[in-house]
Write the structure tokens for this entry.
Amino acid sequence: MVLASTDEILEDLAFFDDWEERYKYIIDLGKELPSMAPELQTADRLVKGCQSNVWLHYEYRNGQLVFLVESDAVIVRGLLALVMSAFNEKSPSDIVAFDIDDYFSTLDLERHLSPTRGNGLRSIVGKVKSIAMSLKNVTDNAIEL
Amino acid sequence: MAFDVAVIRQQFPILSRDIDGSPLVYLDNAATTHKPQCVIDAISHYYSYSNSNVHRGAHRLADESTKAYEGARDTVARFINANVREEVIWTSGTTESINIVAHGIAQQLNPGDQLLVTEMEHHADLVTWQQACATSGAELKVAPINDNGELNLDQFQTLLCDRTKLVAFPHISNALGTVNPITKMIAMAKAAGALVLIDGAQGIAHGDVDVQSLGCDFYVFSGHKVFAPTGTGVLWGRQSLLESWPVWQTGGEMISTVTYQSAQWNQLPYRLEAGTPHIAGVIGLGAALEWLSRQDLDGMRLHEKALMATATERAEQFEGLRIIGTAKNKLGVLSFLIEGGHPADVGFLLDRQGIAIRTGHHCAEPLMNRLGVPGTARASFSLYNTLDEVDALFDALKKVRLMLA
Ligand SMILES: Cc1ncc(COP(=O)(O)O)c(C=O)c1O
């Protein structure tokens, strides 16, 4: 999938000054996110979020993590698109190194990562990071051998 | 003084704050209500002037705090028309109150016995009874509702039998706003010989609870939903029952004599109140109910009805909105879904406009499943809300609908 890059998103969002335009843009980003086939939306792919359901599926190919995500709420879906612009089709080391909190605060969206928002976004970021971390550990160890 | 919402609002300092430049429109009163200045002052006065433990001190501060603390018990007893003040047990909230009753009843239940609840139960009034059944081998029966969210009284009657030991149901549903015909239901349950507990979490703030005329055995509520601090609550129960009710927690205050090997329990209300209580909170609860009692309660109820009626009317006219819970008798709660929007989206986009609602399953997951909805957006009203705020909600929803289109 060709999603906007983090730089493009930063540039675009800086352009809007009212919240409605910003969130319309985020909702539209979510619309561009490929949807996850219903048969992949299984309980084991469900990320525990409080209010809306979020599913995460991933594959590791050619040194890159490829993700599929889904949410039944459109704003969460848009925010997932933001997260994916940073993480999808990146190497585990790039993912581990990427400072998502900084990215979200530059976008002035840090409240969505705060622990009080029950939208599961924080859980999904944590999940992605830990998948990347365990793959990175495996490859790091392999190099040492 | 006649009910004047502007005067009421002035007494709630939080209502004058803003959210990102928009005035706060607080429509999450079923979750918790705000506190009037006099309640905040009562708490602050206790800590800054009389702070001390109750019942035990040999000094002036202890006298003062005990007087205020026990005075609050008198206030609650008057507010709900208890037979005697000893029937008012302090708890940490509705949840703990129900747990005290469930813990006690579990010891009296046998396999073959039944408990009866309804499909509109809050988890606090469901999981507790499930556990009482799990530990005792009794069976939990659930009285069905219709698609409007009203209890089916015929089926309720059918489910009552001589094995029904206790029946529990909400005064008002927190998720749907349904006002249950509790007087009738209590009479039906009493006729079957069962104990009756009313979950009054959403019922208490309307100021018309009279436990003697209701005829129930237990009425429970949380302080924080009636303008008092969190961490306070009441278990009201008939003296004859509470006198011998299995003790809840053991420790200081709840005993009369203690040896190294045994203890005797104190009398009511103390036998069910172990340890140092939430003194400041209880004093705040007393202040809150004193304050509420001073208001024009008939005027308040008319105002609350007008809020509900106006909100319902606006909701019915709003394209793409579906009201969840359309009982004939509703109060305080408007649950709804917006076409094409998950409740979480609706809640977020309203918050951006300064409007506070709650979204989700409202601690009533089985009810949401029963109604076939993933959850709802819920606006809930209190005496300080205005008809303008109802308008503000629907104006903001127009924007939400536009953004989600
Ligand atoms: C109907 C009902 N029952 C029980 C509770 C539980 O109250 P608390 O969390 O204050 O113990 C609530 C509060 O949400 C409620 O609305």
